[in-house]
Design goal:
With 313 residues, the protein is mainly α. It has helices at residues 17-38, 44-69, 77-88, 95-108, 125-136, 139-153, 167-175, 181-201, 206-223, 246-251, 258-263, 285-291; strands at residues 118-119, 242-243, 283-284, 297-298.
Length: 313
């Protein structure tokens, strides 16, 4: 019999706090080791190997901080926020900014405010192609990383007034809670200080640093819409469960069970595979990525964001 959301008992949904802390500690140790090694290697093949390693490990760390975004990393709220914020420094981005963006994604998904695979009559088709192909080539991550630096110099960059050039960006900015602005600024400053210190103390050549960080940036950005491209225009059902190698699914904390997560965002990562029939077919992540290169398509059906203007708590 297929396992459903309703058959999961409360104990099985318990947050695996100790396990999560152990995994987070291992992730942080691995990330620091990779960046330290970037200052010791002398050949570009070695740098590329470190870049690939950082991509694998930081995507795992992102999956863990994603648990923190949903308050599922640890049952103690202070521990949950602190560990997630620490992991986010290696993204690098302010945790309380990307958290609001992600929670906003759960309420805007597949609406006109967040449909990167579609364009409508009267919209700039070139801009929509630029957004989607930028995501596929790592530029979405570059935008977030650059925004972090801009926040330090010009904090109002994340206000709605600065985001009128694009509907999706404006919807994101309008959902940001003003009470987190000082905390976001502090986290942005910590990102700059941490990465500047690592580069200086570990003697990491700037080219090596950028290459290693982009290993994660490309992988993360490329996967960001693979689970949503071409799906039904429904805020919860508009997602896909995708597969890679079993070991990679485990390392990435079942993050590719994305439909299950959207249907039950309060369920910890360890239980996501049990929320659907084990024989249910899953698409392939690489195939989903390649399919996105078809580009955006013209759409006539409009789906309004029911939570437009809602501020994230």
């Amino acid at each position: 019999m297929a396992t459903t959301h309703a058959t999961l008992s409360a104990p099985r949904r318990a947050i695996p706090g100790r396990l999560n802390l152990a995994i987070a500690a291992a992730q942080l140790a691995a990330l620091c080791t990779i960046l330290w090694a970037a200052g010791r290697v002398a050949t570009w093949p070695a740098v590329l190997a470190l870049s690939f390693a950082y991509g694998i490990v930081m995507n795992s760390a992102y999956a863990m901080l994603h648990e923190g975004e949903h308050n599922l990393l640890h049952s103690d709220a202070r521990v949950n926020q602190a560990v997630a914020a620490l992991l986010a420094l290696f993204f690098p981005a302010p945790f309380h900014l990307i958290r609001q963006g992600h929670i906003g994604h759960h309420i805007r998904n597949r609406s006109d405010d967040e449909a990167f695979d579609l364009y409508f009559a009267g919209e700039n088709r070139f801009w929509k192609y630029l957004q989607l192909y930028g995501t596929l080539t790592g530029m979405f991550w570059v935008l977030i990383a650059v925004t972090n630096a801009i926040i330090v110099l010009y904090p109002p960059v994340i206000t709605p007034r600065q985001a009128r050039f694009d509907r999706t960006t404006q919807a994101f900015a309008e959902s940001l809670n003003p009470r987190y602005r000082r905390l976001i600024y502090l986290e942005a400053v910590l990102v700059v200080l941490l990465h500047g210190s690592m580069i200086a103390l570990w003697h990491i050549p700037l080219g090596h640093y950028v290459a290693v960080m982009f290993g994660f940036g490309f992988m993360w950005s490329a996967m960001q819409y693979a689970h949503h491209y071409g799906t039904v225009r429904d805020v919860q059902k508009g997602a896909l469960n995708l597969r890679t190698f079993y070991a990679l699914d485990v390392i990435w904390l079942n993050h590719n069970w994305h439909l299950n997560h959207h249907m039950s965002p309060t369920v910890p990562w360890i239980y996501l595979p049990f929320l659907s029939d084990p024989d249910e077919p899953r698409g392939n992540l690489m195939a989903a990525y390649l399919r996105m290169w078809r580009g955006p398509r013209l759409a006539t059906e409009h789906v309004q964001n029911r939570y437009a203007g809602k501020v994230i708590n």
